Protein 1
Amino acid sequence: MTKEILLLSGPNLDQLGSRSPEIYGTSTLFEHVERFTHAAEELGYSVRHLQSNFEGDLIEAVHAARGHSVAIVVNAGALTHSSWALADALAMFEGAKIEVHLSNPAAREPFRHVSTLAGVVNGSIAGFGALSYSLALDAVEGLLTTP
Ligand code: DQA
């Protein structure tokens, strides 16, 4: 059976392409997901992607991934800075967990300097634009294959 990676996209990421292109670039979410999925499939993974503007949808997707997906790559958008509930859900997931951001929140407004997720994931990748997703996939592969 193919090992599944759950790719989660939080609020407003459905607007990528036209949303602040000077910060987030011009690629649409569909393009990021396509590139990620193609690269993951080359490595033998399948990808399930969910974008939602609703916190509960993301939390329920994490619950459903338990015992099913081998990894979660999550760009939670602004929920990164506020959602203790999503952090609690991710804490229960036993596989690899990578937090990813297109921009570098640490170099932006103060409210973006806190990540509720940082303490429950294996690691965070931020600030590399589209490359952030590729680096996140490298991180998943490394975590799952390095003894
Ligand atoms: C983001 C950074 C967040 O601060 C912001 O709220 C987003 C996008 C990023 O990918 O750079 O929605 O997660």
Protein 2
Amino acid sequence: MSHVLGQVKDLREQCREALAKIGSLTALQEERVRFLGKKGEITRLLRMLGTLSPEERPLVGSTVNELRDEMEMAFDAAKMRLEVLEAEKEEERGRLDVTLPCRGRGWGSFHPVVQVMHEVIDVFIGLGYSVALGPEIEDDFHNFEALNIPSYHPARDMQDTFYVEGNRLLRTHTSPVQVRSMLRWGAPLRIICPGKVFRRDSDPTHSPMFHQLEGLLVDREVSIADLKGSLEAFAKAMFGPEVKARYRASYFPFTEPSMEMDVSCVACGGKNPSCRICKGSGWLEISGLGMVHPNVLRAGGIDPTVYNGFAWGMGLDRIALLKYDVRDLRFFFDGDVTFLSRGGMR
Ligand code: DAH
């Protein structure tokens, strides 16, 4: 047998082994050049044909050609296989693994004070009130004078009030909206006014900006019983049907008579002498209120001989403080998302 035929056999074997090991298209191309390239093994064998006798040449020649065809087919098949494999790998790399745990997506929520505000508004809307709003930058007339607060009243002091340019000030309470509403709509009137108010104060129970909700009802023959009925309906809706109310005589320039309303402690119900919330008193101060002073009605363009009314003002932050058992009012305004998204505040 020609020595070339022996080499054909060896080469077929080598090629088979090489193909079995190839793992990438680049490696495949390199091997293809080694076996089938212009200077490759097959060419080398074909060149050797010249050294053979004319009898041997046709058989050996066709055997080498067969091997070349075989190799070409094998390389083509290997190429297709590798292309499929690489495409799969590529797809794998870009694929989304839906079983991976996802990064949490934070849910926004209303600020606790805003939640309380909405709850209180809902209760009073249910009682027939409308929401009225007023400016946060006020003038002396609406914030003080029309509310029967004389010029010597300590609330006007620079210590309490933030004054801004042009005889303006940041409203110290929501009461000026009473006056604006009377002047705008006249009597009869039933409004609540939620909003921001400002005072020069900062400690665990006071913040320079806080929220109040003012209420005003003006009609004919309004009585203190109506006032109590409205506020107690509110207290029960807000704190539960078992809540009790009491009234203490007080003083506000814009109401006569004036009172303060307490509700039984929402934490201990008045049963825990060492309660941190009510400090053992069993009561929580919730609102200032009274019958609208005739001077205030007059400043609002309403005849006090025909109409009378009641008004109240309450701190919304304080209600949120009680409701969420927060120790320092200023936490509400620090913008700490962890604090603000505490359980139950959504
Ligand atoms: N304006 C008062 C304050 O800021 C709260 C208040 C008390 C409002 C009695 C009223 C009221 O309408 O009748 O402390």
